[in-house]
Specification:
single chain; alpha+beta; 3-stranded antiparallel beta sheet; two-stranded antiparallel ribbon; globular
């Protein structure tokens, strides 16, 4: 399941981010430096020769800044602990939940996914001031043709029911459903009657062959550094 978080970089709550930096061991001097970096900013809109009045930026991290992905990763560093049944992997603002199950357990698995989705949404809302967009949150079922045919016809997930989000001091009632998608672009694995997963792996490999060759020639880099770079490249394709 791919989770779509709305306006993540614009929704970072500064006091929460600074507290998380303290919890991971940042010194008071470093925290104060980041407080100065994040606060005191303002923005305005220019259209032709017209310029709006400036407004203070009270939340969010600077768009396009090299530090913003790192700051956001610190901001949501405990989000993968929220699910009880699934495993949640995050790469900056790209989060996916994974859960394997047997066909006979499909009904229970649906309830598990709904529970985990609710727990993640509550964690995003209550602790991080983030909002999950149910219209863009999709999940993909992968299995043999026989397994997929034997699944229940209704695998739509109820999204949080009547739960309200608390987002930057505004009450936003949100309800909806999460539907299965026929394809998942970020995984590059189209779901068809005859899924050629090996072919999709070849396509991803071919599109990154130059990148892989570059790192093969840079053997002086530590294995961990190369692995992190490769994972980052694959996550973005």
């Amino acid at each position: 399941m791919i989770l779509d978080l709305s306006k993540v970089f614009d929704s970072v709550h500064h006091p929460t981010l600074l507290n998380k930096q303290i919890h991971i061991g940042a010194s008071p001097e470093v925290v104060k430096c980041f407080e100065s970096y994040l606060t005191g900013r303002s923005q305005f809109v220019r259209t032709g020769t017209s310029v709006s009045s400036s407004l203070d930026i009270t939340h969010g991290v600077p768009q396009g800044a090299i530090l913003s992905p790192l700051l956001f990763s610190i901001y949501v560093n405990e989000l993968p602990l929220a699910p009880r049944h699934s495993s949640l992997n995050s790469y900056v603002d790209d989060s996916k939940m994974f859960l394997s199950f047997r066909v006979k357990d499909a009904t229970d698995t649906k309830e598990y996914l709904q529970e985990d989705l609710s727990r993640v949404a509550k964690c995003c809302s209550a602790e991080h001031h983030l909002l999950i967009n149910p219209e863009k949150t999709k999940y993909l079922l992968i299995g043999t043709r026989q397994q997929l045919q034997n699944l229940p016809t209704d695998m739509c997930l109820n999204f949080l029911g009547e739960i309200n989000y608390q987002l930057i001091n505004a009450e936003l009632p949100f309800r909806g459903y999460v539907h299965m998608t026929g394809s998942m672009r970020k995984l590059k694995m189209p779901r068809k009657d005859k899924s050629h997963i090996a072919k999709n792996i070849d396509n991803v490999s071919e599109s990154n062959i130059l990148f892989f060759w570059t790192y093969k020639r840079r053997s002086y880099l530590a294995n961990r550094t190369q692995m992190c770079s490769v994972n980052g490249a694959l996550s973005g394709t």
